Amino acid sequence: MLLHVDGLGIHLAGKPVVRDLGFQLDAGELLVVLGPNGAGKSTLLKGLAGEHKIADGQVSFAGCTLQHWSKREIAKRRAVMPQRVEVNFPLTVEEIVRLGRPVEPLSQSMPVVSELMDLLDVAHLRYRLAPGLSGGEQQRVQLARVLAQVWDAQGPVLLLLDECTSALDPAHQQQVFSLLRRLAKQRGFAVLAVAHDLNLAARFADRLLLLHHGQCYISGKPFEVLSETVLAAVYGLSARIIKLEEGYPLVVPRDDGPEAVYASPSLSPSPSNTAPVNPSCRQAS
Ligand SMILES: Nc1ncnc2c1ncn2[C@@H]1O[C@H](COP(=O)(O)OP(=O)(O)OP(=O)(O)O)[C@@H](O)[C@H]1O
């Protein structure tokens, strides 16, 4: 097991934002973390990235507690893409991607930088300055920089990506998730990606972890997690789940919308029916 999270608690401004969270992530797995706004997804990711202090529990990576990794060693194996990265200084796309490989001579880093610019479809922008790029272009450049950091790492690699496709058009979203899946399957990367798009998650994730009020509501394979009752209870979303021929679920919101769900006493988000069905975050099955 590459990443082992046990009883994790993170407090912000004196309040528990992530509570009693436990899950594991293996090499070669793509785990998508879902949940409503404010559920604690970014806080979890920042905790795993070492940006937030861990108040309770333990996180170990490749068998060693996170706090015991040296900054230098973990930087070779863990790459993090935050939810928002704004580049306001006049660096070119190529220079930004190269920031992922700060200690390497130019001749050595250029093949990786070029490969990643191709993969993220930003090679045609290589001499453009970052502040003039569109939101989606900026996001693809940042993802290329993040991947450059661990591209040819030896040994275990963990990618922590916070809504890394939120600004992308549907085709680029598919390309990026398909790339992440390939990196997991072919290179053994462990990928934890926070996302809001349920269908993208269902299509590409090996497993989903649904956060609600800082706790794991349910985790498991997409079909186990994405049920009508779960979506109604966690998001207040009325939706149909269709099983596609390809074998993964498709979430189709109903016309009656969230207001209708909230109007229904049996599905209103009262404390009793928003309590996690699976507080210890066991597998759904
Ligand atoms: N630095 C902070 N200090 C105090 N509270 C914070 C801080 N950062 C986040 N929070 C609060 O913690 C809760 C979880 O925030 P977080 O950003 O983890 O949510 P999220 O699930 O990523 O949401 P979104 O889908 O909107 O990005 C929210 O209620 C937020 O207001």
Automatic annotation (TrEMBL):
Keywords: ATP-binding, Nucleotide-binding, Translocase, Transport
Domain ABC transporter: 3-238
Biased composition range(s): Polar residues: 265-285
GO molecular function, one term: ATP binding
Pfam families recorded: ABC_tran
Entries under PROSITE patterns matching the protein: ABC_TRANSPORTER_1, ABC_TRANSPORTER_2
InterPro entries assigned to the protein according to its UniProt record, in alphabetical order: AAA+_ATPase, ABC_transporter-like_ATP-bd, ABC_transporter-like_CS
Disordered: annotated span: 261-285
The protein's role, per its UniProt record: Part of the ABC transporter complex HmuTUV involved in hemin import. Responsible for energy coupling to the transport system.
Name of this protein: Heme ABC transporter ATP-binding protein
